[in-house]
């Protein structure tokens, strides 16, 4: 049986994989098997760190919002602000709120004060209605 020569296809495949890891040193950039291992490792790390980066940015935004809110009002905190935002059905994400805090703090103060007033006002009305509905009979009725 005659010997078959592989030709250029395998060589082309190997050089294509070498282009990916051209910045590595030593065997990681020379040997085909270690190149594939390094490629897999690099892709796994990139995927993991993309998720980690999202978590870190969310933590940064929350810290910025909380710091600005606690700076002005002592008893008001980040968690109360977010809770009141959801009560009012205002859908600000944390990135936008953090950008508002950096750009103009007065705008965030105005938003938080309006939300607090509205929530306190509706809470007073709900309490008064609840007291009237529960006038000694012990049963609650929804209007």
From TrEMBL:
<keyword id="KW-0934">Plastid</keyword>
<protein>
    <recommendedName>
        <fullName>Large ribosomal subunit protein bL20c</fullName>
    </recommendedName>
</protein>
<keyword id="KW-0694">RNA-binding</keyword>
<dbReference type="GO" id="GO:0005840">
    <property type="term" value="C:ribosome"/>
</dbReference>
<dbReference type="GO" id="GO:0006412">
    <property type="term" value="P:translation"/>
</dbReference>
<comment type="similarity">
    <text>Belongs to the bacterial ribosomal protein bL20 family.</text>
</comment>
<dbReference type="InterPro" id="IPR035566">
    <property type="entry name" value="Ribosomal_protein_bL20_C"/>
</dbReference>
<dbReference type="GO" id="GO:0009507">
    <property type="term" value="C:chloroplast"/>
</dbReference>
<dbReference type="GO" id="GO:0003735">
    <property type="term" value="F:structural constituent of ribosome"/>
</dbReference>
<dbReference type="InterPro" id="IPR005813">
    <property type="entry name" value="Ribosomal_bL20"/>
</dbReference>
<comment type="function">
    <text>Binds directly to 23S ribosomal RNA and is necessary for the in vitro assembly process of the 50S ribosomal subunit. It is not involved in the protein synthesizing functions of that subunit.</text>
</comment>
<keyword id="KW-0699">rRNA-binding</keyword>
<keyword id="KW-0687">Ribonucleoprotein</keyword>
<dbReference type="InterPro" id="IPR049946">
    <property type="entry name" value="RIBOSOMAL_L20_CS"/>
</dbReference>
<dbReference type="Pfam" id="PF00453">
    <property type="entry name" value="Ribosomal_L20"/>
</dbReference>
<keyword id="KW-0689">Ribosomal protein</keyword>
<keyword id="KW-0150">Chloroplast</keyword>
<dbReference type="GO" id="GO:0000027">
    <property type="term" value="P:ribosomal large subunit assembly"/>
</dbReference>
<dbReference type="GO" id="GO:1990904">
    <property type="term" value="C:ribonucleoprotein complex"/>
</dbReference>
<dbReference type="GO" id="GO:0019843">
    <property type="term" value="F:rRNA binding"/>
</dbReference>
């Amino acid at each position: 049986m005659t010997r078959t020569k592989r030709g250029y296809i395998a060589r082309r495949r190997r050089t294509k994989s070498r282009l990916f890891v051209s910045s590595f040193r030593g065997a990681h950039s020379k040997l085909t098997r270690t190149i594939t291992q390094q490629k897999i490792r690099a892709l796994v790390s990139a995927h993991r760190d993309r998720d980690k980066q999202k978590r870190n940015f969310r933590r940064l935004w929350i810290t910025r919002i909380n710091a600005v809110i606690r700076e002005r009002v002592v008893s008001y905190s980040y968690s109360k602000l977010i809770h009141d935002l959801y009560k009012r059905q205002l859908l600000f994400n944390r990135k936008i709120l953090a950008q508002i805090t950096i750009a103009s703090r007065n705008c965030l103060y105005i938003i938080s004060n309006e939300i607090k007033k509205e929530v306190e006002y509706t809470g007073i009305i709900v309490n008064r209605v609840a007291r009237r509905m529960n006038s000694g009979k012990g049963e609650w009725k929804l209007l």
